[in-house]
Design a protein that fits this description.
Layout (H helix, E strand, L loop, with lengths): L5 E6 L6 E4 L4 E4 L5 H4 L9 E6 L11 H14 L5 E5 L5 H11 E2 L5 E4 L12 H13 L1 E2 L2 E2 L4 E5 L2 E4 L4 E2 L8 E2 L7 E3 L3 E3 L14 E2 L7 E5 L6 H8 L6 E6 L9 H12 L3 E6 L12 H9 L2 E2 L5 H13 L4 H9 L8
Parallel strand pairs: 1-4, 1-5, 5-7, 7-10, 17-18, 18-19, 19-20
Antiparallel strand pairs: 2-3, 6-16, 8-9, 10-11, 11-14, 12-13, 14-15
């Protein structure tokens, strides 16, 4: 007899959990305990669905590592009871949150699927129902009575992505997310199809390890034509600064001005970790490919390769929080940990 999977639905906040009060025309939080009454299609899924909601749903603009830990601890406490997890959150910071959660779980052997919506669940033209139903179906998909997926994913508008490869690309289209540097893991059409060649290999025989330490002392510095010394200097001299995501041009290029090079070198000598990430939507940093990135390579900054800014933020916070030794930090960042970079 085939085992019926148990799925835990975790609502943190966001548009997907809102319904309209037609008397006042205002949006209010949806009661997920009544989810099968509101979405009877869920009864067609061959799984048991349980729900947990944050006591106070949060807007994704207020998302921070405290809530990342809260999500993780819910999954940790229920890990042995459930076969898969679906996390509902606001879309604006979903790629940051889902990327962070991917680094927090080591030896994950069950699916953690993030999803949300562009329109509230009670809206006439909502995308919430399809995203929610299919995310649960994916989390419940099994192979020989065991979960088929063992990684943190993001499902949105018929496509399943590796979470730490995603970025939000639209505020108005239902296809709000993309994975510019990595193939989609699956797609929902008439049938639910998985790209088995790129799914992360599920680790079954290792103990789940939870990492909860994040260091908040990082900053994103985006280059632009005409950026001046005072701006860069003030950012790199922030008190207690430990890490910088440097968003460079093209394949990792930056100004070759003497003052810029000296400020970067001074920061790295103070053991401030600087990660070179391209501003381009797709593609990779190739340090030293052009003369305009060779000075960065010589300064010893970290090659972010094809990592997204969202994933780079999560990974940098995570590795600094784990107190990786200075002499091995660069190698640790440049090494794929959860499939977040090639």
């Amino acid at each position: 007899m085939t085992k019926v999977p148990n799925i835990l639905l975790i609502y943190t906040g966001g548009t997907i959990g809102m319904v309209k009060d037609y008397k006042s025309n205002a949006l209010k939080a949806f009661n997920f305990n009544q989810i099968k009454n509101k979405i009877p299609e869920l009864n067609l899924l061959e799984c048991n669905i349980h729900t947990i909601s944050f006591d106070e749903p949060i807007d994704s603009s207020n998302m921070n590592p405290k809530y990342w830990v809260q999500i993780t601890e819910i999954i940790e406490s229920q890990y042995d009871k459930f076969d898969g997890f679906v996390v509902l959150s606001g879309t604006d910071t979903m790629s940051y949150t889902a990327s962070a959660i991917s680094f927090m779980f080591e030896n994950l052997s069950k699916p953690v699927i993030f999803t949300g919506s562009q329109l509230p669940i009670g809206d006439l033209r909502t995308d919430a129902k399809e995203n929610l139903i299919t995310a649960i179906q994916i989390a419940a998909t099994q192979k020989g009575d065991l979960p088929k997926i063992g990684e943190v994913c993001l499902y949105f508008e018929y496509k399943l992505y590796r979470a730490n490869r995603t970025t939000k690309v639209s505020t108005e289209q239902f296809e709000a997310f993309n994975s510019p540097n990595f193939p989609k893991l699956g797609e929902s059409g008439v049938h639910l199809n998985f790209n088995n060649n790129v799914l992360k290999k599920v680790v079954r025989n290792k103990k789940l390890i939870i990492r909860k330490n994040f260091d908040a002392n990082i900053v994103i510095l985006k280059l632009f034509p005409g950026i001046n010394k005072e701006v860069v200097k003030s950012i790199l001299e922030i008190t207690n600064l430990k890490g910088v995501i440097l968003e460079t041009y093209g394949a990792g290029n930056a100004p070759t001005s003497k003052w810029f090079t000296e400020l970067i070198q001074k920061a790295t000598q103070k053991n401030i970790y600087i990660v070179n990430v391209t501003q381009c939507i797709s593609g990779s940093v190739i340090l030293g490919h052009y003369e305009t990135s060779n000075h960065l390579k010589k300064a010893g900054i970290i090659n972010g390769k094809d990592i997204t800014t969202e994933s780079a933020v999560a990974k940098l916070k995570y590795l600094i929080g784990e107190k990786i030794p200075v002499n091995t930090f660069k190698k640790a960042f440049e090494t794929p940990l959860r499939g977040e970079m090639n």
